[in-house]
Specification:
Radius of gyration: 17 Å
Number of domains: 1
Family: Belongs to the short-chain dehydrogenases/reductases (SDR) family.
Largest sheet: 7 strands, parallel
Shape: globular
Order of helices and strands: EHEHEHEHEHEHHHE
Keywords: Oxidoreductase
Pfam family, one: adh_short_C2
Strand order of the largest sheet: 3-2-1-4-5-6-7
Bound molecules: NADP nicotinamide-adenine-dinucleotide phosphate
Protein name: 3-oxoacyl-ACP reductase
CATH superfamily: NAD(P)-binding Rossmann-like Domain
Number of strands: 7
GO molecular function, one term: quinone binding
Length: 249
Amino acid sequence: MFTSDKRYLITGASSGIGKAICCDLITKGASVIGVARSEDKLLALQNELKSEHFHYELCDLSKNLDTIPNMLMKLSKKFGKLSGLVHSAGIQEILPIRSYKKLHLSQLFEINVFSALFLAKGICDKRVNIGKGTSIVFISSIASITGSSGIVGYSASKAALNGMMRSLAVEMAPQGIRVNSILPGFVMTEMIENWKQIYNDEYIKEIDEKYPLGIGKPEDVAEPVSFLLSEQAKWITGIELCVDGGGHL
Ligand SMILES: NC(=O)c1ccc[n+]([C@@H]2O[C@H](COP(=O)([O-])OP(=O)(O)OC[C@H]3O[C@@H](n4cnc5c(N)ncnc54)[C@H](OP(=O)(O)O)[C@@H]3O)[C@@H](O)[C@H]2O)c1
């Protein structure tokens, strides 16, 4: 499905869904540059993968947004042009509306939305991408299209990401660049573990029973991402693909 001259930049590579995407792409024969802040975790992934086709770059994507396109330029000069990008880095905030401060929204939007725009700006530069066949995938959430208590800011950020995806898909189509969103449902990752006081065993059991196909694993999201990156998806752009075991139904 992939060859090592197909090179993908994956944000959020140190954990959860982003890490699973890196593993899936390497297994399928692609080259990957993983981006995150935690060097320990990226090194552990490199050791686990034992692949000369996996490289990583440390970056806090919330900071110095304007420099993100330069980072992509630098990486494409070092490793070769990029065939695609997956933005999986993201954070969640669980907070009732009465407790919101501007800072909460800023933090959510900086990593979930603003960094996505500057990553897209970077890869849409002709000097950085391979041209026709370049594919961008944003990891959004079913929270962008369904309602849940306590996540108004998170839902807004993921809906903003979808809106950006659709216009970018139209703007970049003349260059043969496709742009899509994947909307995962509840997937067991560190993001969920970080909110253990809310996502306790009882809550997880309830969700598992509510989803027609049960709760997902990071690998369940990685496979559809690889498909959207691949040539097999060459006529697909501008879609919001729910990957959620039917959780949005
Ligand atoms: N898990 C779910 O149920 C679920 C459901 C729907 C959508 N999603 C979405 O899926 C994506 C991945 O989530 P996950 O569950 O895999 O979460 P996770 O395990 O917590 O991973 C989040 C990743 O984002 C990176 N990250 C966070 N802030 C960053 C920053 N400022 N700069 C660079 N990297 C940063 C983290 O790396 P470092 O900490 O090393 O920087 C980590 O690799 C997110 O966008 C999330 O909103 C998750």
